[in-house]
Amino acid sequence: MQLRCLSCAASVSVQIQLESFSMQVIEPLNPLLVADNSPLSDTLRQRLALFLQSGRQALLVEGLRGIERETLRVNPDGRLALTPHPRSLGSALTHPLITTDYSESLLEFITPAEKDIAIALDKLDLIHRFAYTQLGDEMLWSQSMPGHLPSEQEIPIAWYGTSHIGMLKHVYRRGLALRYGKSMQCIAGIHYNYSLSEQVWPILQAAEKIEGDAKHVQSEAYIALIRNFHRYSWLLMYLFGASPALTKSFLRDRPHQLEQLSEDTLYLPYATSLRMSDLGYQNNAQDGLVPPYNTLMDYMRSLSLAVRKPYPAYEALGMKRDGEWAQINANVLQIENEFYATIRPKRVIRTGERPIEALCARGVQYIEVRCMDVNPFEPLGISLETSRFLDAFLLFCALDESPQTNEVEWHENTDNFARTVKQGRKPGLVLHRHGKEVSLQSWGLDLLDKIAAVAGLLDLQRGDAQHADSMATQREKLLDASKTPSAQVLDAIRQNEGSYPQFALKQSRKLANQFRTRPLGAEDMAYFAQLAQISLAEQEAMEHGQSGDFDQFIADYRSRTSSEICCDGVMT
Question: Is the model's pTM score more than 0.90?
């Protein structure tokens, strides 16, 4: 009886706290929804009010979030590990959580999609800790930009076994090596996958009388989110860019406009993310590949054309060398994923299905943010605080007005992004908004004022202030550039004799020690060991169960490239 009374008292206490918190959030939010001078657009105000209604608030936190974290395996001296992908980690082809990206040395950890990003981060932590039990004296590189790399010839391309699907993935990477060089493919990043509850779209459709079936409405809403993301993604580069410097040898004597910080380090004094800059990177084939798009159909048509359009420079490389496939095709893109975008509309694909086929058949399911640097001060490469801001930022992009775009705005967006990654912390840096000059700081603060309303709504549902706390942290960065990750990285490099590889190695060792001192328990170890064994068995079954030769398989794969996408979304 006493326990029950204590439980009741605790429940009443929690309820009082939540009611108090709700008033703290709703009271400042309501003026934003009704005031004539509100910083919010009419569209955003109306949509926030729509979801403030009873029974709808929870929908905005019921989407899914997931993280893909890339990281190089390196030796104790910080140089690239040239060993094969550890078999004890499982099959890079079939393991659901642990794979490789471009190189055999470039691990990719993939979390399940979760309603709360905190759960996904906890699972990402488990993956890291398991990996460290299998790496021996190797460790994970803590940065987006690599350290000292071996010669191009020595960088190992990822291997996925002898199944047709595995060979296709390998040949695709051979093509990347020919087209762009291997060093460029050793850059690591954080990909943030985000979706809203599918119940959100019917509510908006009914309230705003949007025509079309459910698949169309949902897909075009995500495209509208992407348009806003392109308008405002420079802000993410300022707030979270963490690659202001790189190892001098990375550029392999290519021309550049970087400054020398030390004998082995190049940088730009106000850069936020050299990873997302051109770095002297020449990839003219993709220039204008996907022009400003206002519909999913626009996007699919552009990609469909790119995977069919021959490119003379790639034709000159040849399709085969010494009887082995060197690239899947000689077109602008070998496959859709070769398009380097900061954000992509996505749909979970089925075995052997092309991304464009999945989008065409079933529409957009989620978006993938691809511009986030690995934060070298965070063991997982990204923090919960950053993730909370991303959730608020992306929900803002989804709910705010998103007018149709055009070539002029596309160039403006591209220029704002490029300026920020190279000069983002420069005092008084000017961007362009609707053809007019505006300082990065003032525009950023304006955006935070708008995103704060969305953050408040998310906190109202959660019953805490995590999103608001993250908003406050980001505001401090806009008011003081020294608090940005890029500034902190540069300070740390200077404290290590101005050497980027020296700082990066020191930080990688520090984080490796943190993981190694937190080994997994027996139950978690058994779980990951079982996943590894299942994945190896699945790969073996694929290799023994296939029929036909690889030449025919690759011909069939290429033949499924759409020659035309009809207005109803059916590929022909």
Answer: yes
